[in-house]
Amino acid sequence: MKQKIVLTAILICTFCVQGYSQELPKNIRERLEYLKTNIRLKLDSCRTNISTGYLHPGFLSGNGNVTTGAMTHYEGIAYYAQYNLNWKMVYDDEMIARMIQLLNNEYRQDELDTLVNREMAWYTHSWFEQDAMRIMQVDTSKVFLQIQDSLNQHRDREIHPGLYQDFDVFQYLGLDTTAHFHFLIDSLKVAQREEKINYYLTNYVYLPIMDIVRQCGFIKDERLIEPLINLYNKLKENNIGDEKNYRSLIAQAKWSLFMMRVEPYYSEVLNTLLYSLDEIRAMDFVGPVYALAEILNNQDSFRELSKYMFSNAPTGVSSEFGFQGNAYLNAFEYIKRFIENDDLQKMITAENFNIHIEENRQRVYDWMQANYGKYEIRRIW
Fold this sequence. Notes:
Number of strands: 2
Strand order of the largest sheet: 1-2
Distance between the termini: 31 Å
Order of helices and strands: HHHHHHHHHHHHHHHHEEHHH
Shape: elongated
Radius of gyration: 32 Å
Strand content: under 5%
Protein backbone atom coordinates (compact mmCIF):
# COMPACT_ATOMS: atom_id res chain seq x y z
CA MET A 1 0.00 0.00 0.00
CA LYS A 2 2.81 2.37 0.93
CA GLN A 3 4.55 1.62 -2.37
CA LYS A 4 1.35 2.44 -4.29
CA ILE A 5 1.04 5.80 -2.54
CA VAL A 6 4.67 6.64 -3.30
CA LEU A 7 4.22 5.59 -6.93
CA THR A 8 1.07 7.72 -7.24
CA ALA A 9 2.92 10.73 -5.87
CA ILE A 10 5.77 10.20 -8.34
CA LEU A 11 3.36 9.91 -11.28
CA ILE A 12 1.52 13.07 -10.26
CA CYS A 13 4.73 15.03 -9.91
CA THR A 14 6.04 13.71 -13.23
CA PHE A 15 2.82 14.64 -15.01
CA CYS A 16 2.83 18.13 -13.56
CA VAL A 17 6.44 18.76 -14.51
CA GLN A 18 6.31 17.21 -17.98
CA GLY A 19 2.87 18.59 -18.88
CA TYR A 20 3.58 22.14 -17.80
CA SER A 21 7.37 22.38 -18.01
CA GLN A 22 7.66 23.70 -14.51
CA GLU A 23 8.73 22.47 -11.12
CA LEU A 24 5.85 22.80 -8.71
CA PRO A 25 6.51 23.70 -5.08
CA LYS A 26 6.42 20.84 -2.63
CA ASN A 27 3.26 22.11 -0.91
CA ILE A 28 1.33 22.14 -4.21
CA ARG A 29 2.55 18.67 -5.19
CA GLU A 30 1.37 17.43 -1.80
CA ARG A 31 -1.95 19.20 -2.27
CA LEU A 32 -2.48 17.57 -5.67
CA GLU A 33 -1.69 14.17 -4.21
CA TYR A 34 -4.06 14.81 -1.31
CA LEU A 35 -6.87 15.86 -3.65
CA LYS A 36 -6.35 12.97 -6.02
CA THR A 37 -6.35 10.34 -3.27
CA ASN A 38 -9.41 11.70 -1.50
CA ILE A 39 -11.49 12.40 -4.61
CA ARG A 40 -10.70 8.94 -5.99
CA LEU A 41 -11.91 7.40 -2.73
CA LYS A 42 -15.11 9.45 -2.76
CA LEU A 43 -15.84 8.62 -6.38
CA ASP A 44 -15.28 4.95 -5.69
CA SER A 45 -17.57 4.78 -2.65
CA CYS A 46 -19.97 7.66 -3.27
CA ARG A 47 -23.04 5.43 -3.65
CA THR A 48 -22.45 3.24 -0.64
CA ASN A 49 -20.94 5.92 1.58
CA ILE A 50 -22.57 9.24 0.72
CA SER A 51 -20.02 12.04 0.95
CA THR A 52 -19.95 15.41 -0.79
CA GLY A 53 -17.14 17.80 -1.67
CA TYR A 54 -15.41 16.25 -4.67
CA LEU A 55 -13.95 19.63 -5.64
CA HIS A 56 -12.17 20.40 -2.43
CA PRO A 57 -12.57 24.16 -1.77
CA GLY A 58 -9.54 24.12 0.48
CA PHE A 59 -7.28 24.07 -2.55
CA LEU A 60 -8.20 27.65 -3.41
CA SER A 61 -8.89 28.94 0.08
CA GLY A 62 -5.50 27.70 1.23
CA ASN A 63 -5.77 25.89 4.55
CA GLY A 64 -2.74 26.78 6.63
CA ASN A 65 -1.69 23.18 7.30
CA VAL A 66 -1.37 22.19 3.64
CA THR A 67 -0.32 25.32 1.78
CA THR A 68 1.72 28.39 2.51
CA GLY A 69 -0.44 29.69 5.31
CA ALA A 70 -3.93 31.05 5.92
CA MET A 71 -5.19 32.75 2.74
CA THR A 72 -8.51 34.14 1.67
CA HIS A 73 -10.30 32.62 -1.31
CA TYR A 74 -9.00 35.27 -3.70
CA GLU A 75 -5.50 35.28 -2.25
CA GLY A 76 -5.55 31.54 -2.93
CA ILE A 77 -6.62 32.15 -6.53
CA ALA A 78 -3.76 34.60 -7.01
CA TYR A 79 -1.25 32.22 -5.47
CA TYR A 80 -2.24 29.14 -7.46
CA ALA A 81 -2.83 30.98 -10.75
CA GLN A 82 0.90 31.55 -11.22
CA TYR A 83 1.45 27.78 -11.59
CA ASN A 84 -1.01 27.23 -14.46
CA LEU A 85 -2.89 24.46 -12.66
CA ASN A 86 -6.09 22.78 -13.82
CA TRP A 87 -8.39 20.07 -12.54
CA LYS A 88 -7.19 17.56 -15.14
CA MET A 89 -4.01 17.34 -13.07
CA VAL A 90 -6.19 15.74 -10.38
CA TYR A 91 -8.66 13.66 -12.40
CA ASP A 92 -6.98 10.86 -14.34
CA ASP A 93 -8.55 8.60 -16.99
CA GLU A 94 -9.78 6.08 -14.43
CA MET A 95 -11.54 8.77 -12.40
CA ILE A 96 -13.13 10.28 -15.54
CA ALA A 97 -14.36 6.80 -16.52
CA ARG A 98 -15.93 6.42 -13.08
CA MET A 99 -17.67 9.79 -13.46
CA ILE A 100 -19.06 8.70 -16.84
CA GLN A 101 -20.35 5.52 -15.21
CA LEU A 102 -22.12 7.59 -12.56
CA LEU A 103 -23.58 10.01 -15.12
CA ASN A 104 -24.91 7.03 -17.11
CA ASN A 105 -26.44 5.62 -13.91
CA GLU A 106 -24.47 2.40 -14.34
CA TYR A 107 -23.53 0.34 -11.30
CA ARG A 108 -20.71 -1.95 -10.37
CA GLN A 109 -22.16 -5.24 -9.24
CA ASP A 110 -20.64 -4.95 -5.78
CA GLU A 111 -22.16 -1.52 -5.08
CA LEU A 112 -25.58 -2.53 -6.45
CA ASP A 113 -25.55 -5.63 -4.22
CA THR A 114 -24.56 -3.52 -1.21
CA LEU A 115 -27.35 -1.01 -1.74
CA VAL A 116 -30.01 -3.65 -2.34
CA ASN A 117 -28.87 -5.76 0.62
CA ARG A 118 -29.14 -2.71 2.87
CA GLU A 119 -32.67 -2.08 1.65
CA MET A 120 -33.65 -5.72 2.08
CA ALA A 121 -32.34 -5.70 5.64
CA TRP A 122 -35.20 -3.37 6.59
CA TYR A 123 -37.74 -6.09 5.79
CA THR A 124 -38.07 -8.70 8.55
CA HIS A 125 -38.97 -12.31 7.84
CA SER A 126 -42.32 -11.80 9.60
CA TRP A 127 -43.20 -9.06 7.10
CA PHE A 128 -42.91 -11.54 4.24
CA GLU A 129 -44.80 -14.18 6.27
CA GLN A 130 -47.71 -11.82 6.82
CA ASP A 131 -47.78 -10.86 3.18
CA ALA A 132 -47.67 -14.53 2.17
CA MET A 133 -50.61 -15.31 4.47
CA ARG A 134 -52.61 -12.47 2.96
CA ILE A 135 -51.90 -13.65 -0.59
CA MET A 136 -52.72 -17.27 0.22
CA GLN A 137 -56.04 -16.24 1.76
CA VAL A 138 -56.96 -14.25 -1.30
CA ASP A 139 -55.95 -17.00 -3.70
CA THR A 140 -57.32 -20.07 -1.91
CA SER A 141 -60.02 -19.12 0.57
CA LYS A 142 -62.91 -19.06 -1.90
CA VAL A 143 -62.11 -22.47 -3.43
CA PHE A 144 -61.36 -23.92 -0.02
CA LEU A 145 -64.73 -22.83 1.39
CA GLN A 146 -66.56 -24.17 -1.66
CA ILE A 147 -64.99 -27.59 -1.13
CA GLN A 148 -65.71 -27.46 2.59
CA ASP A 149 -69.40 -26.59 1.97
CA SER A 150 -69.71 -29.36 -0.60
CA LEU A 151 -68.24 -31.94 1.77
CA ASN A 152 -70.52 -30.88 4.60
CA GLN A 153 -73.58 -30.84 2.37
CA HIS A 154 -73.04 -34.36 1.05
CA ARG A 155 -71.34 -35.96 3.99
CA ASP A 156 -72.35 -39.38 5.28
CA ARG A 157 -73.44 -38.59 8.83
CA GLU A 158 -72.75 -42.13 9.98
CA ILE A 159 -69.18 -41.93 8.83
CA HIS A 160 -68.67 -38.24 9.64
CA PRO A 161 -71.38 -37.02 12.02
CA GLY A 162 -69.68 -33.64 12.68
CA LEU A 163 -69.08 -30.81 10.21
CA TYR A 164 -65.82 -30.82 8.32
CA GLN A 165 -63.32 -28.37 9.85
CA ASP A 166 -60.35 -26.75 8.13
CA PHE A 167 -57.96 -29.51 9.15
CA ASP A 168 -60.41 -32.18 7.88
CA VAL A 169 -60.59 -30.49 4.50
CA PHE A 170 -56.81 -30.28 4.20
CA GLN A 171 -56.56 -33.94 5.16
CA TYR A 172 -59.33 -34.92 2.74
CA LEU A 173 -57.63 -33.07 -0.13
CA GLY A 174 -54.20 -34.38 0.84
CA LEU A 175 -52.85 -30.84 0.92
CA ASP A 176 -49.78 -29.65 2.79
CA THR A 177 -49.62 -25.85 2.53
CA THR A 178 -46.30 -25.55 4.39
CA ALA A 179 -44.14 -26.02 1.29
CA HIS A 180 -46.22 -23.61 -0.74
CA PHE A 181 -46.16 -21.08 2.09
CA HIS A 182 -42.36 -21.05 2.23
CA PHE A 183 -42.13 -21.02 -1.56
CA LEU A 184 -44.36 -17.95 -1.59
CA ILE A 185 -42.18 -16.21 1.03
CA ASP A 186 -39.06 -16.84 -1.09
CA SER A 187 -40.90 -15.57 -4.18
CA LEU A 188 -41.87 -12.38 -2.36
CA LYS A 189 -38.25 -11.79 -1.32
CA VAL A 190 -37.03 -12.31 -4.87
CA ALA A 191 -39.68 -9.92 -6.23
CA GLN A 192 -38.84 -7.30 -3.60
CA ARG A 193 -35.16 -7.55 -4.44
CA GLU A 194 -35.83 -7.19 -8.17
CA GLU A 195 -37.99 -4.15 -7.45
CA LYS A 196 -35.14 -2.50 -5.53
CA ILE A 197 -32.63 -3.29 -8.28
CA ASN A 198 -34.96 -1.84 -10.89
CA TYR A 199 -35.39 1.32 -8.80
CA TYR A 200 -31.66 2.00 -8.69
CA LEU A 201 -31.17 1.23 -12.38
CA THR A 202 -33.99 3.50 -13.54
CA ASN A 203 -33.74 6.39 -11.07
CA TYR A 204 -30.90 8.82 -10.44
CA VAL A 205 -30.17 8.96 -6.72
CA TYR A 206 -30.03 12.71 -6.06
CA LEU A 207 -26.90 12.41 -3.99
CA PRO A 208 -24.21 11.84 -5.13
CA ILE A 209 -25.23 12.56 -8.75
CA MET A 210 -25.71 16.27 -7.97
CA ASP A 211 -22.06 16.59 -6.91
CA ILE A 212 -20.88 14.63 -9.95
CA VAL A 213 -22.84 16.87 -12.33
CA ARG A 214 -21.57 20.01 -10.60
CA GLN A 215 -17.92 19.04 -10.85
CA CYS A 216 -18.16 18.33 -14.58
CA GLY A 217 -18.34 22.07 -15.18
CA PHE A 218 -15.05 22.61 -13.37
CA ILE A 219 -13.10 19.73 -14.89
CA LYS A 220 -14.15 20.57 -18.48
CA ASP A 221 -13.15 17.19 -19.89
CA GLU A 222 -14.68 16.60 -23.33
CA ARG A 223 -15.44 12.98 -22.46
CA LEU A 224 -17.99 14.16 -19.90
CA ILE A 225 -20.03 16.22 -22.37
CA GLU A 226 -22.04 13.46 -24.04
CA PRO A 227 -23.00 11.66 -20.78
CA LEU A 228 -23.96 15.01 -19.25
CA ILE A 229 -26.17 15.90 -22.23
CA ASN A 230 -27.77 12.44 -22.14
CA LEU A 231 -28.55 12.83 -18.46
CA TYR A 232 -30.02 16.30 -19.02
CA ASN A 233 -32.22 15.09 -21.90
CA LYS A 234 -33.34 11.99 -20.03
CA LEU A 235 -34.48 14.00 -17.03
CA LYS A 236 -36.30 16.47 -19.26
CA GLU A 237 -37.96 13.81 -21.43
CA ASN A 238 -39.20 11.78 -18.47
CA ASN A 239 -41.05 14.83 -17.14
CA ILE A 240 -39.69 14.37 -13.64
CA GLY A 241 -38.61 17.99 -13.42
CA ASP A 242 -41.55 18.81 -11.17
CA GLU A 243 -39.82 17.12 -8.28
CA LYS A 244 -37.75 19.66 -6.39
CA ASN A 245 -34.52 17.68 -6.38
CA TYR A 246 -34.70 16.83 -10.06
CA ARG A 247 -35.49 20.43 -10.98
CA SER A 248 -32.25 21.39 -9.24
CA LEU A 249 -30.38 18.55 -10.98
CA ILE A 250 -31.67 19.58 -14.42
CA ALA A 251 -30.65 23.19 -13.74
CA GLN A 252 -27.19 22.12 -12.53
CA ALA A 253 -26.65 19.91 -15.59
CA LYS A 254 -27.45 22.84 -17.87
CA TRP A 255 -25.21 25.12 -15.81
CA SER A 256 -22.29 22.68 -16.07
CA LEU A 257 -22.75 22.46 -19.84
CA PHE A 258 -22.72 26.26 -19.84
CA MET A 259 -19.45 26.26 -17.89
CA MET A 260 -18.01 23.84 -20.48
CA ARG A 261 -19.09 26.21 -23.30
CA VAL A 262 -21.36 23.58 -24.91
CA GLU A 263 -23.98 24.89 -27.31
CA PRO A 264 -26.90 25.54 -27.29
CA TYR A 265 -26.78 25.44 -23.48
CA TYR A 266 -24.03 28.06 -23.31
CA SER A 267 -26.01 30.62 -25.30
CA GLU A 268 -29.26 29.85 -23.47
CA VAL A 269 -27.75 30.42 -20.03
CA LEU A 270 -25.68 33.36 -21.21
CA ASN A 271 -28.83 35.13 -22.41
CA THR A 272 -30.20 34.94 -18.87
CA LEU A 273 -27.11 36.80 -17.61
CA LEU A 274 -27.10 39.65 -20.13
CA TYR A 275 -29.15 42.77 -19.45
CA SER A 276 -29.24 46.34 -20.65
CA LEU A 277 -28.29 49.18 -18.32
CA ASP A 278 -31.95 50.19 -17.99
CA GLU A 279 -32.94 46.61 -17.06
CA ILE A 280 -30.20 46.44 -14.43
CA ARG A 281 -31.17 49.79 -12.93
CA ALA A 282 -34.76 48.54 -12.58
CA MET A 283 -33.88 45.22 -10.88
CA ASP A 284 -35.22 44.55 -7.40
CA PHE A 285 -32.94 41.55 -7.02
CA VAL A 286 -29.72 40.66 -8.85
CA GLY A 287 -28.86 37.05 -9.70
CA PRO A 288 -25.50 35.27 -9.85
CA VAL A 289 -23.14 38.06 -10.95
CA TYR A 290 -20.28 35.83 -9.77
CA ALA A 291 -20.79 33.78 -12.95
CA LEU A 292 -19.61 36.70 -15.04
CA ALA A 293 -16.36 36.94 -13.10
CA GLU A 294 -15.58 33.46 -11.83
CA ILE A 295 -17.09 31.23 -14.53
CA LEU A 296 -17.02 33.18 -17.80
CA ASN A 297 -13.96 35.17 -16.74
CA ASN A 298 -13.39 36.85 -20.11
CA GLN A 299 -13.39 40.28 -21.76
CA ASP A 300 -17.11 40.21 -22.58
CA SER A 301 -18.21 39.04 -19.16
CA PHE A 302 -16.29 41.73 -17.28
CA ARG A 303 -17.70 44.44 -19.52
CA GLU A 304 -21.16 43.09 -18.70
CA LEU A 305 -20.24 43.00 -15.02
CA SER A 306 -19.35 46.70 -15.06
CA LYS A 307 -23.01 47.54 -15.79
CA TYR A 308 -23.85 46.52 -12.23
CA MET A 309 -21.98 49.61 -11.01
CA PHE A 310 -25.41 51.25 -11.36
CA SER A 311 -27.43 48.78 -9.27
CA ASN A 312 -28.01 48.93 -5.55
CA ALA A 313 -30.20 45.80 -5.58
CA PRO A 314 -29.53 42.92 -3.16
CA THR A 315 -27.64 39.89 -4.46
CA GLY A 316 -28.54 37.27 -1.85
CA VAL A 317 -31.20 36.07 0.55
CA SER A 318 -30.70 34.89 4.11
CA SER A 319 -33.33 33.13 6.18
CA GLU A 320 -32.11 35.12 9.18
CA PHE A 321 -31.59 38.56 7.67
CA GLY A 322 -33.69 38.49 4.49
CA PHE A 323 -32.35 40.24 1.39
CA GLN A 324 -28.71 41.23 1.66
CA GLY A 325 -25.70 42.15 -0.41
CA ASN A 326 -25.32 44.96 -2.88
CA ALA A 327 -24.89 44.59 -6.64
CA TYR A 328 -22.49 47.47 -7.26
CA LEU A 329 -20.31 46.42 -4.32
CA ASN A 330 -20.17 42.83 -5.56
CA ALA A 331 -19.35 43.94 -9.09
CA PHE A 332 -16.68 46.31 -7.83
CA GLU A 333 -15.02 43.63 -5.68
CA TYR A 334 -14.84 41.25 -8.64
CA ILE A 335 -13.38 43.94 -10.89
CA LYS A 336 -10.86 44.92 -8.22
CA ARG A 337 -9.76 41.32 -7.67
CA PHE A 338 -9.65 40.11 -11.26
CA ILE A 339 -8.73 43.08 -13.47
CA GLU A 340 -5.04 43.76 -12.87
CA ASN A 341 -4.36 46.72 -15.17
CA ASP A 342 -2.11 49.15 -13.32
CA ASP A 343 -4.03 52.32 -14.17
CA LEU A 344 -7.31 50.81 -12.95
CA GLN A 345 -5.73 49.50 -9.76
CA LYS A 346 -4.13 52.87 -9.02
CA MET A 347 -7.47 54.58 -9.47
CA ILE A 348 -9.58 52.25 -7.27
CA THR A 349 -6.97 51.77 -4.53
CA ALA A 350 -6.25 55.47 -4.14
CA GLU A 351 -6.76 56.78 -0.61
CA ASN A 352 -9.52 59.19 -1.61
CA PHE A 353 -11.43 56.68 -3.77
CA ASN A 354 -14.85 55.72 -2.34
CA ILE A 355 -16.97 53.28 -4.33
CA HIS A 356 -20.12 54.40 -2.51
CA ILE A 357 -19.89 57.74 -4.30
CA GLU A 358 -21.83 57.54 -7.56
CA GLU A 359 -19.23 59.59 -9.44
CA ASN A 360 -16.57 56.98 -8.63
CA ARG A 361 -18.79 54.15 -9.79
CA GLN A 362 -19.22 56.03 -13.06
CA ARG A 363 -15.42 56.31 -13.36
CA VAL A 364 -15.00 52.55 -12.98
CA TYR A 365 -17.72 51.92 -15.55
CA ASP A 366 -16.20 54.39 -18.02
CA TRP A 367 -12.75 52.79 -17.65
CA MET A 368 -14.22 49.34 -18.29
CA GLN A 369 -15.93 50.54 -21.47
CA ALA A 370 -12.88 52.38 -22.75
CA ASN A 371 -10.49 49.46 -22.13
CA TYR A 372 -12.67 46.59 -23.35
CA GLY A 373 -10.44 44.00 -24.99
CA LYS A 374 -7.42 45.13 -23.00
CA TYR A 375 -8.35 43.80 -19.56
CA GLU A 376 -5.51 41.96 -17.84
CA ILE A 377 -7.65 39.27 -16.26
CA ARG A 378 -6.39 37.21 -13.35
CA ARG A 379 -6.54 33.57 -14.36
CA ILE A 380 -8.72 31.04 -12.52
CA TRP A 381 -7.47 27.48 -12.79
